[in-house]
From TrEMBL:
The lineage of its organism: Eukaryota, Viridiplantae, Streptophyta, Embryophyta, Tracheophyta. This is Bms1-type G domain-containing protein. The keyword Nucleus applies. The keyword Nucleus applies. Residues 1-61, 335-357 are annotated as: Disordered. Residues 10-35 have a biased composition (Basic residues).
Amino acid sequence: MGGSRAQFNKPHKSRFSSKSSRNLHKTSLKDKHRIAKSERNLAKGARAARNQRNKMLRDQKRAAVLKEKRALSSSTSPPRVMVLFGLSASADVHSLADDLLKLLSPDRSNGAEPPTVASPDYKLRITVLKAPHGDLPSCVEMAKVADLIAFVASADSSCDEGAFDYIDSFGSQCLSVFRSLGFPSTVVFIRDLPTELRRRNDSKKICTSSLAGEFPEDCKFYPADTKDELHKFLWLLKEQRLTMPHWRNRCPYLMSQKVDMLVDDQSSGRCTLLLTGYLRVHSLSVNQLVHIAGAGDYQLKKIEILNDPCPLNAKKKTDAMELDDVLDVQVIRSVHPDPSTQEPLVVENVPDPLAGEQTWPTEAEMAEADKTQKEKQLKQRKLPRGTSAYQAAWILDNTDDEGSASDSETGDGMVLDETEVIPGQEGAKGSDFDDDQASLSFKDVDEETENDSVMMEGENLTREQIEDDIKKIKEAHAEDEEFPDEVDTPLDVPARKRFAKYRGLKSFRTSSWDPKESLPPDYARIFAFDNFAKTQKHVERALTMEQEDRDDCISAGQYARLHINEVPTLVASKLCALAETIPVIASGLLQHESKMSVLHFSIKKHEMYDSPIKAKEELVFHVGFRQFVARPIFSTDNISSDKHKMERFLHAGRFSIASIYAPICFPPLPLIVLKSVEGAATAVAAVGALRSVDPDRIILKKIILTGYPQRVSKLKASVRYMFHNPEDVRWFKPVEVWTKCGRRGRVKEPVGTHGMVSSGWTP
């Protein structure tokens, strides 16, 4: 029933209704609309502000993308670098490069011409590089500067069983390296397709489905057998927005197209290296330091801005030889450094030996120090030679009454107990241990540890000796993986001598350890930061400042010649010879990046590398544009502790931390570790990324001495083969013992004369 006869129930009365709700029936209809409108306007205003802000962000991103596309297609942008990489040995990269260059420049001959061409028809400037198949270091260097990697697959590639195999072992290895470096824009060219249309489409589908999982999702597949197919690709490339890894956008770099050297003085052994090419990403200051890949860090003598040899809109065509002659002498502008603002080439810190000195002590303080010294002389402890005061504090005093009584009666000279020195009997007490202590030498211990970590080099070894060394390393790697940290006590050397540098810790996680303890004086030559994250933020903020209007800078996209000062003549001659096969890269350094420190990398062994990787083994590190040789130390990554356990080998299937001395770099940066073996091809040993720069990271070498229980009771056990003489048992008495099941206890006393241990368990 409708209308006025509709049923209307009386609303529930509320005892706690507000005054406004009780008086709402007295408000006119006009006022009700006015009150509700203010609330709606408030919500509508906030939503409008959000929409306006989102629209502004969209417009800014759209403008940035449009600016980037216009810059890439303009005449001021540097040529795009396209690297042709064959996925297998059967893929012909050279013929594809010739077809692309002829299509871009029809007047080009097949002579030894530069690989950079400009095409007014396509409105595109491009540099085509051919990655040599089988040369891993060259492929890595080309991938660092590639704007576009074009993978070339041959449709005729197949295995003996009939299954298609478009990627060989070297191609798979390089693909994993490219993934670690970060893929730029990628395409796949499919060559050698059948001429019949149906078979051609089927072969293309099979190749695409087989390779789609190896590349990014936005990777496109193009047939590249005919001129029309390459023409279609170039038209699409002109409008494509290329992406590159983030780490390449942080600093300016120059890919050389011409490398020369000027020798000013033959006797000095130094020369000026000339690198000519297009500057990319950011502007470069002449006061800035530069890094030459594989050569080191240097200062700039000057920068010359030259005429562009490949203009996109050439007003008149000139012969190539005449153009080269003109460009060699014609310089638009030269930029010279300012000695007052040029960044110095500082590699090591110069420590001040008086930096820790305090004010001269007063007479009262000197008298008190003399009194304390006399008291210490009356009561002294026998310690191993070379033990510092901080290390002596870790050697516990004997607080067990029973043990102290028995020890004082036997007079075995235990070095952990404080004993009073009685005049006249000083030579009689502990004479046996004094003879052993006189033979204690940390040099012998250092030689043993170094021989365990570093392979023999510089010796003429026979083939049988080399095979024996490899067999021993593999056996040690398998033993370390199965029984980590477990060490057998030597029979010919006392354990208190062999493990004199080690310290017993009750808890590896919670026990305190001073990171500045017993550091060598040379350790003060490396640099450390109070707050590394804050320093990195400050350096990156300074990088984002515009440098276009500064007189000491050249802008990105200009064709320039860098005069690099004080380069060794031998290094410069090698770079000139190397430039014929791969491009030489010069990258601008950020602040502090030439200084030495301790770098830590998160590293993982490559799945295709089967040989064991030992700590302190010589490896080639590729960190961003940098390349250097180092001997890393591997350690675990403990999140809940400030101490990290050293690892003798880099084990497969898990991440470790590799620590090296190297120039400072700011993360994130990719890491590629190569291992070069004499007589064999260079292989990828590990991949990873830069984790941190921290000289105070504590890395400890941990060992576990094991024994076998002979007699076990409820609260006691007799353990054999952990030590071989009673003196070693007394030396390690303060150290806690434990079983693999988790039961813990203490060393009570030696049993017999062969080093058997009597242990007491904690109930």
